[in-house]
Amino acid sequence: MSLKSIDLQIYIYQGTSGSYTNADLKYTIQKGVVGSDTNVVFEIAELVRDYITLTFNNDYISRCVWVTTVGTAIDDNDVIYTYGSPITNTYLALDGYGFFEDEVNPALSSHALITANTIYLPENVAGKIPIFAEGVGKVSIDSVDTQITDNGNTNQKIQYITIPANSSTIQVYGTDDATLLKTVTVNSVCEPKFNPYKITFVNRMGAYQDLWAFKKSVEKMSVTDKTFKKNIISSSTASYPVYEGQKERYSTNAQKSITLNTGFINEDSNATIEELFLAEQAWIRYGSQTLPVIPKTKSLTYKTSVNDRLANYKIDFDFAFNAINNVR
What pTM was estimated for this model as a whole? Predict the structure, then answer.
């Protein structure tokens, strides 16, 4: 008998691998064999992505899910294969992405969940670095070790290790505690004039990553409104008061925005800027609040040490809400 189709059940859940129940069944898909093919290919990434909720309130929580697929093979007589069926696979899903050059199903980092090898922090301010617990044994920051343990639960698969203030070097080691996987240089920036702002965004690994803007910032507000013309003549006196306007304004609101400058950063940080520009979720630490923003700048000119010597990036952001509260 020939393979006719596959019935695929997709369970999406949190907790430990394999701990799903019937309530975690999110999709049931049937797909047939095409032409002379002998296999069936399912693309489930976008379906799974709907169940990864990326919210952030300066809390750095692990955001990932387990996905278990159960595939049942059907032959051309509509009979279930009893040999090698059903086929069960389990995956850990993060909301990351690969680039075109990475080809199909790229394997992203399985240790430090950042691309760049350089981090900038304000002087005397601590930071965070995202670590994938499955692939890391320890993180050494200026020779002080932090052991990484993995209990299999989604709530700790991504661990945000604190970078102490004024640190200089982060070393990430494999599960054998001996294989050096990544070295990150930390630069502490003294900025006595401007107020630095912290932008947090979801990077290509699906983790929260911080970018500090140290230099000049400019805030703006763009107002929208509508007007109508009304009759202000009194029917009894056939006159009108000059203090009453003939035009009246309504549906007034405003969009606030902020322009930030990173200050001088090295060429290695181009990867961080690129991922910020591509991020669908981003937040700014504004006063004592974490507020959602949208990168407004749509064009990126990559700066290099050869062409530009020192690179400063100017980035515009819109606050992702109206100035006047009209949430209903």
Answer: 0.91
